[in-house]
Amino acid sequence: MSDYHYKFDVRWSDIDANKHLANSSYVEYCAQTRMAFMNTHQMGLKELSRWGIGPVILHERYSFFKEIYADQTVYVSAEISGMSEDASIYQFVHKFYLPDGTHCATAEATGVWIDLMLRKSTSPPDDILEVLQEFSKENMKLLTRQDLKDLPFKPENVEAFHKRNTFTWKKDAAEKTED
Questions:
Q1: How far apart are CA 62 and CA 64, in angstroms?
Q2: Among the listed residues 141, 42, 125, the one whose alpha carbon sits nearest the alpha carbon of residue 86
Q3: For the segment 62-84, what is each residue's pLDDT rounded down to a tens digit?
Q4: Helix, strand or coil for residue 62?
Q5: Contact 143, 84 (CB under 8 A)
Q6: Quick one: which of 91, 111, 166, 174 has the fewest CB in 10 Å?
Q7: Which helix or strand (DSSP H or E) is residue 141 part of?
Q8: What's the predicted TM-score (pTM) here?
Q9: Confidence of residue 162 (pLDDT cuts 50, 70, 90)
Q10: Among 78, 99, 105, 106, which residue's Cα sits nearest to residue 4?
Q11: CA nearest neighbour of 73 among 167, 166, 8
């Protein structure tokens, strides 16, 4: 197993009204760490385009332990915590650390590789498989299609809103006075 870390300097625009790192910034930091990891290991946009595949995140979850503030430096790790036999399904774990080693948060992202033309899941080329195996945790979980079916949320389609007559336009005070 190898370690990969990406360094962020927390910007003003990364914090929320509570003056700590915003939830959306955690998502963005994880995505940037994954893409930097992929670029570093010759799996960047150019290579993905040539292979005709792309990574898609299906589920992400977070646990927070310590606040991160503006102007702090934070390191985000990337390791592979799960993968299917054919590597079509993958799972990253990201850990957020301050420079002194304080563990601030952990994120888990589960995804699949898709064929960009067919828009269906596919196995990645051997180049990607080798990198994923190099950065796999020692106790990596073997993922299956059942793991995707067991994700906590399921689609619940509803009748289109415009067909239910439930969509109404509410006029604000300025519009009402013009009538």
A1: 7
A2: 125
A3: 999 999 999 999 999 999 999 99
A4: strand
A5: yes
A6: 174
A7: strand 136-143
A8: 0.86
A9: low
A10: 78
A11: 8
Closest CA to 55 of 40, 33, 38: 38
Which residue from 75, 112, 70, 111 is spatially nearest to 94, judged by alpha carbons? 75
Burial bucket for residue 147 (CB in 10 Å: 0-12, 13-18, 19+): middle
Calpha distance 113→51 (Å, rounded)? 11
As a whole number of Å, the end-to-end CA separation of the chain is 69
Beta-carbon contacts of residue 3 (< 8 Å; ≥ 6 apart) = 77, 79
Bridge partner residues of 90 (DSSP): 83, 111
In sign, the C-alpha dihedral spanning 7, 133, 103, 12 is positive
Please report which residue ranges of 41-166 form alpha helices under DSSP H.
Answer: 45-51, 126-134, 145-149, 161-164
| Beta carbons of 79 and 3 less than 8 angstroms apart | yes
Instruction: For residue 69, give both structure tokens.
Output: 């503030």
Whole-angstrom distance, CA of residue 4 vs CA of residue 176: 58
Q: Which one-letter DSSP state was computed for residue 61?
A: E
> How many residues make up the chain in this entry?
179
Give the residue among 66, 36, 58, 72 at the shortest CA–CA distance from 111. 58
Q: Name the 3-class secondary structure at 54.
A: strand
Quick check: 165 pLDDT over 80?
no
Contact of 111 with 90, CB cutoff 8 Å = yes
61, β-bridge pairs: 108
